[in-house]
Amino acid sequence: MIIENSGLNGLQSDLAHLDDSAEQLGFVRWQWEYYRATYDLKLEDQATKSEYFVRVNTRAVEGKLENPHAVLVIEHVYIGKATFPHGLEYESPIPQPIMSVANQRLEQLKQLLA
Fold it and tell me: pTM of the predicted model, to two decimals?
């Protein structure tokens, strides 16, 4: 599911600041190439032991990701349920406690990047 109201879409940051800010909140830059990067936050539903991931997609608008001064823009923010053996399913309903934590972390990330 795309999280439409995160307030992050279109925000820009240099790679070093985005990496540091995301890491403070538990996000990890997993997938990346020269011009795109994905930051994931793993959340676990304690009741069902299901795992969910908040995924922040970014694209370089200046430079390449091998340079800490590269400027990235946040494109979309998603949340999905982890599936076996690997992957995310974006159509499953997200439990309210998981959505609350996700929205809180996204708001914190927005504050750090502002």
Answer: 0.92
